[in-house]
Design brief:
Oligomer: single chain
Shape: flat
Order of helices and strands: HHEEE
Strand order of the largest sheet: 1-3-2
Pfam families: DUF1161
InterPro entries: DUF1161
Protein name: DUF1161 domain-containing protein
Distance between the termini: 60 Å
Number of helices: 2
Organism: Pelomonas margarita
Keywords: Signal
Structural class: alpha+beta
């Protein structure tokens, strides 16, 4: 095996491992706190972030925007400007 295919294989493996770590499920409270901290840091005011069961998201209509998934994909975080 030459160096280039080995380098390609190692790069692909590293990318896949990185994506797996980033896709790890987070508890809703933890993800909500992280997003709220980023919004507060940017000076965003008057918003609400709520964890909603997946089957209830459609009932919100256009009022709320889905901004994340949490609790192993069982819930969605929604964002509403007030």
């Amino acid at each position: 095996m030459s160096i280039k295919p080995t380098l390609l294989l190692l790069s692909a493996t590293a990318i896949l491992l990185t994506q797996t770590v980033q896709a790890a499920p987070k508890p809703c409270d933890e993800l909500k706190a992280e997003i709220a901290a980023k919004l507060d840091e940017k000076g965003v005011k008057g918003y609400e972030i709520t964890a909603v069961e997946n089957d209830k998201v459609a009932a919100l209509g256009d009022k709320a925007k889905v901004i994340g998934s949490c609790d192993g994909g069982s819930k969605k975080l929604t964002y509403v400007r007030q």
